[in-house]
Amino acid sequence: MKKVLVINANPKSTSLCKSLAERYISVAKEHHTVEQINIGDLNFEISLDEGYDRVTALEPDLLEFQQKIQWSEHVVIISPVWWGTIPAKFKGVIDRTFLPGFSFKYVEGKSYPEKLLKGRTSELIITLDSPPLWYKYVKGNAIYKQLKHSILDFSGIKNISATYFGPVIHSKSDHRKDWLNKVAKLARKIS
Asked: What pLDDT is attached to residue 98?
């Protein structure tokens, strides 16, 4: 049994990402302890105006986000591709919470910071309005590079898979049912 955190990174109140998250959760709960975060439900100041130069107090929703990340053993990020990468509100959550002392720590005399979230795994479930192969191989797969390399690896979270669903914009109900079924299979594979 694992502690699984499912993050719906789509800020919209209704979306395919939310449906995918709900399906993943319903199946994962059969064998694991699951917590959920819907980015759209969080209330916080999105901008880290002074960067790391000045400590900005975290709002209660961001403190809870950090607590759930620390609690988790496996993090599932379900995100749409907006303008090539993650939605601004999700980026704001990362900017505000993945801070020095929480997700990494600078070490004097070393080129690379210490990774403070080691021991966790993650998987990415991505929705997009373009064909996944075109996005990955022609457009450069920016969302994967940003999440896996710049955020997760940097913090010590090992990403184990990335699954893409698209194009969503003109998808038929049978495509969406197939995607929901595939998400259920992914939730059954958590080990």
From this structure: 96
